[in-house]
Specification:
Length: 166
């Protein structure tokens, strides 16, 4: 076990939102902003923002880390930028009326295509497809949930196709 792995989660937290240089085994060096550190494996998650490109995320396994050096503190802009990496894209805010309209339109479309669908929950906000998949508001592919990966994948594709038609 190396020094990095011996640190506690509170020690690792001091590295979050900071620009660091990580030296790993075989003299590999990585530089980036610390998003988080996995408390079980001591894996460090780094974000980099190459110019004119989307940001990228890399993982350096805890057992491979030999040294971590803080190069720069993150300012409030950088902290916000890092927070947006792991946060879902901001979803549109829908009024209760809009959500009801979206639910009913999707439900009608599913029924038209002979897919058994009903409503469940206290207020009937959740759509239930054949008793094996649910769709929560705002009724997009990301809100589909099922323990059956095949059904989940196919329904997400159908819902995305439906939304693309709209």
């Amino acid at each position: 076990m190396n020094d990095w792995q011996r640190k506690s989660p509170l020690d690792w937290e001091t590295y979050v939102n900071k620009l660091v240089k990580v030296v790993a085994v075989e003299k590999h060096q990585y530089e980036g902003w610390v998003l988080t550190v996995d408390p079980v494996s001591a894996t460090i998650v780094l974000a980099t923002f190459p110019e004119n490109k989307k940001g990228s995320v890399s993982f350096i396994m805890g057992h491979a880390i030999q040294e971590v050096e803080i190069l720069q503190e993150g300012d409030s802009d950088m902290k916000q930028r890092l927070a947006h990496i792991s946060a879902p894209e901001e979803s549109q805010a829908y009024s209760p009326e809009e959500l009801e309209k979206r639910k009913n339109a999707l439900k009608t479309w599913l029924q038209t295509n002979h897919i058994p669908v009903g409503e469940q929950g206290e207020q009937g906000r959740t759509l239930s497809v054949a008793g094996v998949l649910t769709i929560e508001p705002p009724y997009s592919p990301e809100q589909c949930s099922s323990t059956n990966e095949i059904i989940l994948s196919r329904m997400q594709g159908l819902v995305q196709g439906y939304l693309d038609q709209q």
